[in-house]
Amino acid sequence: MKPSIRLNRFRISPDPLSSFLSGFRYDIVYFTNWPQQDNKSLNNIVSTCIKLVLQESGEAEITAGDTHLHIGAGSAVLIPPYTVYSAKTYEQVNSFEIFFNIIPVTHEQAFLTRLNAANICQYDALLTQSDFDLLRAVYADIREGRDGGYARLHALITELIVRISRTLPQASALTAVSAKEQAIIDRLLAYIDEHIAEPVRVDEICRALQVSQSYLYRCSRSVMNCSTQEVITRHKMVRARLLLHNSEMTISDVAEAVGYDPYHFSSQFRKSFLQSPSEYRKR
């Protein structure tokens, strides 16, 4: 018997979730471990990344608007970008936090939709002690610069996302985003990048992309879950945060680099991140 015939019954093909997850990658920005964070209170936290909180021990509370979560050992919390929340810890708290973006960013909303995570979400009893032992080993790999640490963390995120997906009802399957809408937003983001130092206007973008404002708004809502103007502002503010890490640039330089005058830049930055550019730079 030929090997190919003998192996036919073992042939596999991607399932729908696996096919979906293969359409993007995680850009992991931070991986933290906070042992013994007892009796702490943090207010008005906001991030441009997706944040995954993995609670190993102790108890904590997270509040975002009308949502109030009580977090125990083994729980995970997924916090969408730009969610403003507060957190309070009690005794013997140990947690890991993973901050990541979805690349390309135009897949971010589909990712959050797949997890029913339009708002902050809690998943109880998602992790075992063996999972936390593995997280600790991967954390050590990354802190000590061992080869493969990032890849191991990437694989761990995928494993957790699969577990979360399996806890959700089948009805939470993907909300379709058309390839045409995705392509329009790709072009929108490219236009913003090309004109990042200019005060980009929606009507100018529509002329460049040869689409109506209403259609571009619909694409922005479908793909990014926000208005076209919000897409522009968020993209510029994310770039500004990166530039603020360059100590050779003044805040005025950063403002000019993203197409703002210094006053309106500081105002928009505070509105986006609940702190001024100078406060962010001092962190």
Fold blueprint:
Layout: H1 3-6, H2 16-21, E1 25-35, E2 41-45, E3 50-57, E4 60-64, E5 67-71, E6 76-79, E7 85-89, E8 94-103, H3 108-114, E9 121-123, H4 129-143, H5 149-167, H6 179-194, H7 202-209, H8 213-224, H9 228-243, H10 251-257, H11 262-273, H12 277-282
Antiparallel strand pairs: 1-8, 2-7, 3-6, 3-8, 4-5, 4-7, 6-9
What attributes does this structure have?
283 residues, alpha+beta, Jelly Rolls, globular
What would your notes on this structure say?
The protein folds into two domains: 13-172, Regulatory protein AraC (Jelly Rolls); 179-282, Orthogonal Bundle (Arc Repressor Mutant, subunit A), CATH 1.10.10. Helix 6 crosses helix 8 (213-224). It starts with a helix and ends with a helix. The model has no long low-confidence stretch (mean pLDDT 90). The longest helix has 19 residues, at 149-167. It has twelve helices and nine strands. Helices cover 45% and strands 20% of the residues. Strands 1-8-3-6-9 form a five-stranded antiparallel β-sheet, covered by helices on one side. A four-stranded antiparallel β-sheet has the order 2-7-4-5, with no helix packed on it. The relative contact order is 0.11. The chain has helices at 3-6, 16-21, 108-114, 129-143, 149-167, 179-194, 202-209, 213-224, 228-243, 251-257, 262-273, 277-282, and strands at 25-35, 41-45, 50-57, 60-64, 67-71, 76-79, 85-89, 94-103, 121-123. With 283 residues, the chain is an alpha+beta fold. The chain is globular, with a radius of gyration of 21 Å.
